[in-house]
Design goal:
Helix content is 22%, strand content 21%. The chain starts with a helix and ends in a 21-residue tail after the last helix. The protein is of the alpha/beta class. InterPro entries: Dev_Immune_Receptor, Leu-rich_rpt, Leu-rich_rpt_typical-subtyp, LRR_dom_sf, LRRNT.
């Protein structure tokens, strides 16, 4: 009688909780040998482990085509494999109020509703739900995820619940909202309980702050108002600064592949700029244009920039985090401009890229070689900086081969001085020898004996 009453409850109540958090579902009675039971097109499993879940699902015939709903409660699993064929025929899947140590694989098949709430999940494969074209509801609430996995929304009124995930990053939510901001497809469930973490910046000291879902949605408004026509503007992050205890939106601007000849004016609070693959020659606006005051990451690969000397003493060179100037026309690197920046220990995260530039290699390049090697922790592509003629890597150059210059008469001065010293010593030796012979044997050797007598010789006669 007890089993019959439980069977009746399953038939009546299962449709109500098939994909919701809901109240506790009816479970197989404690007297049941197996922890899973079937009622029509629904299977209910409670208080299971890896082994008892596999055993119970096999007994309940999970692979039957008629199975539409699976409800698993209070499961303690070492691994949950989303790629398993067992889930592919289901329409509704709920795994709630348990503990899943490792979540792996990707769902596939006809699932329309997936509930994984309350399982202490911390990491989910980014593509776990990409192969579910019919998915309309996803519940990841009450877990420990830090990033929302990729979701493909093909139908209107997609419901997403990520409430009570205290470690999820705001940029993950923001990216999802931006992707579907011009549609009415995405709807958040329990929005008042949905919070996320945003970077908190005290200049270069970072901590985190909690933002509500409503604050995240506000970040998008007004983001494109001042964006240059040729560029794409996105929210980079939201900061609570020490000087301004209100939310500030930091932007990333992408102006790559637009045939630009000059750096464009930027919207306020731009922190990241990509102008790669253009025709830009000068970095001067980076130093004098007020709209560039907050730029910290500057990417200008594949342009026509010839010099970085203009950056000397600029605010950008004091505060930058990334400076990428790969494949430009830079002929020399004034190392002193960047050396001061590298010497500041609180900027350990600085990154500089000069790869593909062809320097004019001469004696001064030997100093650049040592500078590249000494700062290779900052210059990621230090081994890709080349010489202009032989295309030899700068770090491989031999100073003795490139320090070649035309000689003049001053190059022989040491030989002349050496010859004069030799002649002087030879003369002193000859005079000393002649004097010794004269005193010892009473005559002068040749050629002293052939030399005419001078008026001053009487001074030496005895």
């Amino acid at each position: 009688m007890e089993v019959q009453s439980w069977f009746f409850l399953c038939c009546c109540l299962v449709p109500c909780y098939c994909c919701s958090f809901g109240p506790q579902a009816p479970c197989p009675p404690p007297t049941s040998r197996y922890r899973c039971a079937r009622a029509n097109d629904t299977i209910v499993c409670c208080n299971v482990t890896d082994f008892t879940l596999t055993e119970g699902l096999n007994i309940a015939k999970i692979r039957q085509n008629s199975t539409r709903t699976l409800y698993i409660q209070n499961a303690v699993l070492n691994t949950f494999n989303a790629s398993s064929e067992k889930w592919s025929r289901l329409k509704y899947l709920s795994v709630v109020d348990g503990k899943i140590k490792k979540f792996e694989g990707r769902f596939w098949g006809n699932l329309a509703c997936v509930n994984l709430s309350g399982n202490n999940i911390s990491d989910i494969n980014p593509g776990a739900f990409e192969k579910l074209p019919r998915l309309t509801s996803l519940d990841l609430s009450n877990n420990n995820i830090t990033k929302i996995p990729n979701i493909t929304i093909n139908k209107n009124n997609f419901s997403l619940d990520i409430s009570n995930n205290s470690h999820v990053w705001c940029h993950s939510i923001l990216d999802l909202i931006i992707r579907y901001q011009n549609t009415s497809r995405l709807h958040f469930i329990n929005g008042n309980d949905t919070k996320c973490l945003s970077a908190r910046s005290y200049h270069w000291f970072n901590s985190t702050d909690t933002m509500t879902l409503a604050q995240v949605e506000l970040l998008i408004k007004g983001r494109d108002e001042d964006c240059p026509k040729q560029c794409t503007c996105k929210t980079y992050r939201a900061d609570f600064t020490q000087m301004h205890p209100v939310l500030e939106v930091k932007l990333s601007v992408n102006c790559s592949n637009q045939q630009l000849t000059d750096l464009p004016p930027l919207p306020p609070n731009t922190i990241y700029l990509d102008v790669s693959n253009n025709l830009i020659k000068s970095l001067k606006p980076l130093c004098i244009n007020d709209s560039y005051a907050e730029v910290r990451e500057f990417i200008a690969d594949n342009n026509r920039i010839e010099s970085i000397s203009v950056l000397e003493g600029s605010k950008f060179i004091d505060n930058f985090a990334i400076l990428s100037l790969r494949n430009n026309r830079i002929r020399s690197i004034p190392t002193y401009i960047l050396s001061n920046a590298f010497d500041r220990t609180f900027h350990e995260s600085r990154i500089v890229k000069f790869g593909g530039n062809r320097l004019q290699c001469d004696c001064s390049t030997a100093q650049v070689k040592m500078w590249l090697l000494n700062n290779k922790n900052y210059i990621e592509d230090h081994d890709e900086v080349l010489c202009d003629k032989a295309f030899e890597r700068v770090i491989d150059i031999d100073p003795s081969k490139i320090c070649i210059y035309e000689k003049d008469w001053t190059d022989y001065i040491y030989y002349i001085i050496g010859g004069e010293i030799f002649l002087l010593l030879s003369l002193i030796s000859k005079v000393s020898y002649d004097y010794w012979v004269f005193k010892s044997f009473g005559y002068l050797p040749w050629p002293a004996s052939r030399m005419p007598k001078l008026p001053c010789d009487w001074c030496f006669e005895t």
